[in-house]
Design brief:
single chain; seven-stranded mixed β-sheet; 7 strands
């Protein structure tokens, strides 16, 4: 029996596949942005005043207002210490837990910034900040201890944490060492253990009798950081960032540049990866 004739189907007769509708990306969480803004400006005591002032949240003016408060007298040394203008045309890896204010400053200084964060929500916030300020950057979702970057491709690795980082510390340091090119620089700002609160509790022990002090884990000492970065060269550690209101009344007459070197809230470490890297970075105890 003959096979029935089936006419050919031409391309113009095939209906096109329906085009996928674009999925709107959710907007960043305003409440979370306000919380992070309070961290970035270095607030010590709770406040009902929004950190961004009267400006609409997540607008360019809002971000600029938060930035101006971040670099006020208590943070006057941050731009120089983090070297915002010294890495033009260099690739910079950025990780942290704020609004990305420092990352935007690096981008404005001419650095090629790549922001890595495990949270998609946090990356949307960073991108909104960069877009509002007209800055350029790349945004990659990945854990800090598994960076999706090739070996020895980053000129500068920068981390700024306002709160103790909850990350596998040894693995994260090893990843930073891996992606840095020989001669590359690492800059990290981390919460200090021996800050103004620690000194007040040590020298004024009756403070602990009248309040329930939270546990302050995950903070660092200069000795721990020097040990953790023993595989680097030219390791330097600075202690900075202190508000006069953090000091007891009897100490507020003292020179702030001196006091912040003793009781500052943050340690900033700078170091260079050796041109011939021998060994790996040791984790802080």
């Amino acid at each position: 029996m003959a096979t029935p004739f089936v006419p050919p189907t031409y391309a113009w007769e095939v209906p096109p596949a329906p085009r996928a509708l674009p999925v709107a990306e959710p907007a960043p969480d305003v409440a979370e942005a306000e919380k992070l803004a309070g961290r970035d400006v270095g607030r010590v005591f709770p406040s009902d005043k929004p950190a961004g002032g009267p400006h609409p949240p997540l607008s360019a003016d809002w971000f600029k207002h938060v930035e101006s408060k971040r670099y006020r007298p208590h943070g006057r040394g941050v731009p120089k210490l983090l070297e915002f203008t010294r890495h033009k045309d260099e690739s910079l890896l950025a990780v942290g837990d704020g609004l990305g204010i420092d990352w935007v400053r690096y981008a404005e200084g001419g650095a090629d910034v790549t922001v890595v964060d495990p949270s998609a929500e946090r990356l949307r916030l960073y991108k909104a900040h960069f877009d509002a300020r007209g800055a350029k950057g790349q945004f990659v979702q990945a854990p800090f201890d598994h960076l999706p970057l090739p070996d020895e491709r980053v000129d500068v690795a920068c981390a700024v944490f306002n709160e103790p980082p909850v990350v596998p510390w040894a693995a994260a340091l090893a990843e930073a060492f891996r992606v840095l090119r020989p001669g590359g620089k690492v800059i990290m700002a981390l919460p200090a253990r021996y800050d103004a609160i620690w000194w007040q509790d040590a020298l004024l022990p009756w403070r602990r009798w009248t309040r329930k002090a939270p546990k302050r884990k995950g903070r660092f000492t200069g000795r721990e950081l020097r040990g953790a970065f023993a595989g680097y060269q030219e390791v330097r550690v600075f202690k900075r960032h202190l508000r006069r209101s953090e000091l007891p009344y009897l100490w507020r007459w003292m020179l702030m540049p001196l006091m912040e070197r003793v009781m500052g809230r943050f340690l900033v470490i700078k170091a260079f990866k050796p041109l011939i890297a021998a060994g790996t970075v040791r984790a802080a105890a």
